[in-house]
Amino acid sequence: MTLTALSGKIALVTGGGRGIGKAISLALADAGCDVAVNYVSREADARATCDAVQAKGRRALAVRGDVS
User: Fold this and answer.
1) Residue 35, class by beta-carbon neighbours within 10 Å (0-12 exposed, 13-18 middle, 19+ buried)?
2) Facing residues of 37 across strands?
3) Residue 7: predicted pLDDT
4) Please, what is the end-to-end C-alpha distance for the chain in angstroms?
5) Are 29 and 3 in contact, with CB atoms under 8 Å apart?
6) Considering only CA atoms, which of 43, 51, 1, 64 is closest in space to residue 25?
7) In what order do the strands lie in the sheet with 60-64?
8) For 58, which DSSP code?
């Protein structure tokens, strides 16, 4: 699989603002995905992840919601 194998796709990453979720968000951006970063209470972390995704040239959106 090439780094652009997911180009044009959109991924929703729950808990994407920090830890493993952040790493997954950034890896998906590297693979060509735009990323929606889901969070429940840590908006600043989600927005920081969005900034990092956008720095990789992909679109990003922080989305608040409890998916439990």
Assistant:
1) buried
2) 13, 62
3) 85
4) 32
5) no
6) 51
7) 10-14, 34-39, 60-64
8) -
* 3-class DSSP string for 3-26: CCCCCCCEEEEECCCCHHHHHHHH
2-60 pLDDT per residue, tens: 556 788 899 999 999 999 999 999 999 999 999 999 999 999 999 999 999 999 999 99
Tokens of 7: 């180009």
| Three-state DSSP class for residue 50 | helix
Phi-psi region of 11 (alpha: psi -120 to 50; beta: other; left: phi over 0): beta
Instruction: Give the 3-state secondary structure of residue 53.
Output: helix
Give the rounded distance of the alpha carbon of 3 from its chain centre: 16
User: Tokens 């908006």 map to which residue?
Assistant: 43
Stated pTM of the model = 0.88
